[in-house]
Structures are given as structure tokens and as C-alpha cells.
Amino acid sequence: MIDEELLKIMCCPACHGDLIEREGKVVCLKCSRRYPIRDGIPVMLIDEAEMPEAKS
Amino acid sequence: MSRKRLFLLMLVAVAGIYGCVKTPMTEKPGNQSSAVAAYFDRCADEGVFDQFSPEELIVAKEILAQMNIRPGDKLAEAGCGAGRLTEMLAGLVGPEGKVFAFDISPRMVERCRQRGLPSQVEIACASAIDIPVGRGEFDAIICHNTFPHFDDKPAALREFHRVLRDDGVLWIVHSRSREWVNSLHSSIGGVLATHVLPDRAELERLLRETGFSLELLHDLPDRYLLKATRGS
Q1: What is the ipTM score, two decimals?
Q2: What secondary structure, in 3-state letters, does B103-150 show?
Q3: Domain CATH number, residue B220
Q4: Cβ–Cβ gap B100/A9 under 8 Å
Q5: Looking at the whole model, is its pTM more than 0.95?
Q6: Which of A52, B6, B102, B156 could cross-link with A32 by S-S, CB 3.0 to 4.6 Å?
């Protein structure tokens, strides 16, 4: 779980869409990119995001 | 503190940074950003930027006093490293304020988290080229010892312009002179060889082209302080 305040401040670095936390990832509601959370810290790097079609 | 002790301290700090760069590369080759992240990951593991030296701490406090940060301010720290300045910023903005501290190096960010900073600090692994924050969010952005490391400076400045409010302030600060910073990076070489703090004319041009106006620039042996204001 990441801090709720942090989710409120942040947006997707690629499309600036709103974010939610789902299944241990930060997910963009607009472009559906999924950003990993490592040790409680969101990794908001576009290169590290999973695109929606590349489901793990 | 005696000159001899000061010199020894500097030597230890520089040796520490050299130690980082000499650690064998184990990361897969990637773009410039991931090479920079990998470099600072190694620094994080060696604890190079965990604490200020006593001299740097004095300068950091003086620089912060000049920034006139008020309780309740919302700040972004672009390249928070291990959080040694973040901690001081958190105290200045207080519980009503906010410090969004980010860094491209995952292990630096982890180090910052381990400090157990107060709840006004929010930490993320992020790039200054693609800041994961909406428009007009911050009163000020602070680049402390980090601006030379942004490989696409116009892109970083455009992002700072986007996430700052109208009349928001950008601070580019170093705990040494521009000349010292640039010669350190070129002597370390490797990924840092091209990490230059531009001269005044070049910075003025970059700032103007990205919607900032230069307000102040002090380049002294023990500090570098640049203040630019975001135009609307």
C-alpha cells in the first residue's frame, strides 16, 4: 500500500491521467499503464511501466 | 575546523564518489537515464550522500534561509538523493506543507524512505523529464546538487514550468562553485563526464526559452545559488 496523499498528488508521467492503486501497482485510469511499487515506493518511470496489453 | 581536516574530509568525499564509479558495472546497458540511475544506486549503497559534512550543513542552512520557505508551502525536490536536504525542507514547510521528493535512482529513494521522514514528505522514484504530477502543483522546486545530471535540460525546465504555479520559484543550488562542480564531474568521467552546470549566458537562454526569468545567481567558492521565477 502506498500513501493515499501521494496518490492524490501524482498523475501518470506519460499522459497525466489520474492514478489508482490496484493489485500492488499504480494504475493510470486514462492510458492503463501500470507502474510497479517497490518497497512501498511507486516507481513512476515510463520505461518501467507495463502497457495494458502486456499483462504479467 | 582546521584547513587540514577540511582537506581530508573533501578527499574522503571525493574518494567515496570515485569508489562508486569504480564498482564494476553489473547493470544491463540502457539509455542515459538508466546509466545515471545505476551510478547513483551504487552511490546509495556506499552511503556517499547520506549526510552533509559540517561545512556543507552550514552552507545548506544559509541557502535554505535565503529561500524563504514558509510553513504550508508545497515543494518539489528534483533529485532528493538519500534525503539529507529533504529532512530540512520537511521541517521548514511543517505538517501543513508538502515536500514531493523524487529521484531517478531507486536505491537513493529507498535510502530516503529509510530516514522515516514526517508525513508531509511524499517519496517517489521519478524522472525530472517526466514528473508524475499535474499542472501548477508547487510553490517551489529545488534542484540541490542535481541540475547537471538532467540529460535533457530544456525538457526538465519545461516540466518544472508545468508543475509550478504562476510566479512559482525554481532554485538550482550546489554546495560548491560552478567551476568546482564541473571539474569534479569531468574528473570522475564515465556517465558524469558530460554532466555540466551551464554558464550564466546559457542558463539565461535556457530559462528564457522555457518561460522562466532569472532573478538571482550567486556563484561562490562554497555555494552556487540560482533563483528563477516562472512566468505565467
Answers
A1: 0.93
A2: ECCHHHHHHHHHCCCCCCEEEEECECCECCECCCCEEEEEEECCHHHC
A3: 3.40.50.150
A4: yes
A5: no
A6: A52
